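User: Please run a holo structure prediction.
Assistant: Happy to. Please share the sequence and the ligand.
User: Here you go; the ligand is nickel (II) ion.
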Amino acid sequence: MAGLSPITADIDCKPVQDMVKDGDEIPDKYVCKDFQFGTIDDDVPTTDIPVVDLKALTSSAACGKEELGKLQSALSSWGCFQAINHGIEESFIDEVNKVSREFFDLSMEEKQKYGRVADDIDGYGNDMVLYENQTLDWSDRLYLLVHPEDERKLKYWPENPKSLREILEEYSRRLKLIAEQLLKSIARSLNLPDDRFLRQYGDKPVMYARFNFYPPCPRPELVHGLKPHADGSAVTILLQDKEVEGLQVLKDDKWYRVPIMPYALLVNIGDQVEIMSNGLLKSPVHRAATNSEKERITVAMFCSPESGRDIEPVEELIDDKRPRLYKKVKDYTATYFQYYQEGKRPIDAVKI
Ligand code: OGA
Ligand code: NI
């Protein structure tokens, strides 16, 4: 996207939820004009995304080996899979869904108590606006750093609904363990020692929660709920809306709808695992579509390496046939946002 000029202060935007309530015309800055990843179609086919059983993954029996094979195949082709048997009770998943909905159902005045201020990432509101002509997403979100714990910005942590803090705390504690277990399994699926990715990931990984709210849009063919992007994380774990579909993944230059699988967690790797795996595993480009009838809520948890860590392809995955593809990076997510909002793929900046 040429011709974008950086801005220093964030533009003040009305929450999308309010625009819908007030029946506003769709402002031009939401209308997608960049079609490098294809147009917004309403006839995107649906497909079965690979399913991986997390319990079987850690089994020492034959099924463990088979599941590792599925994991490796899913991540080298799709870059994502539906995780089942992840150990989080359905009743608790329901609570996470419920508290997310309750937050977005609060009055605007109440939500704005946690409103993001310019130059901050955390808080409730629109996405960061970094460029004057940046196309905006048809969504509002609540973004919170959850780990490391001592870096939380509690002023953005809603006290209403009452149980949100506690549920987020518990949910992130559980997902932190799942992410670590996954990184071990991913290493093993590539015939590497268990700790190969974890060594780079570190003991104080960074985890962000992002509650996404997609209001219905009268003209879904014009806007993105979330524009095409790959995540800057190591691993992202997404809790999809239980009833309303919207996520789409790009594979071999074609878009596919990701079906809802109740109580499964959609796992995708982010750019930092693509880098560590020297490109053997793919951080998938994905987007969220809107629809004209129903609102949609999702909760994405971004698990990233400890800050200050060097992230680079692991040695065992570099050889004459497969030369090193990526430079060493540090604090990748910091540079990520600039590229992302420009509509470019941040990972292209670190390719050799
Ligand atoms: C994200 C994301 C997809 C969705 O938050 O990075 O890709 O369906 N979300 O909400
Ligand atoms: Ni994403």
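DSSP finds nine helices and 14 strands in the chain.
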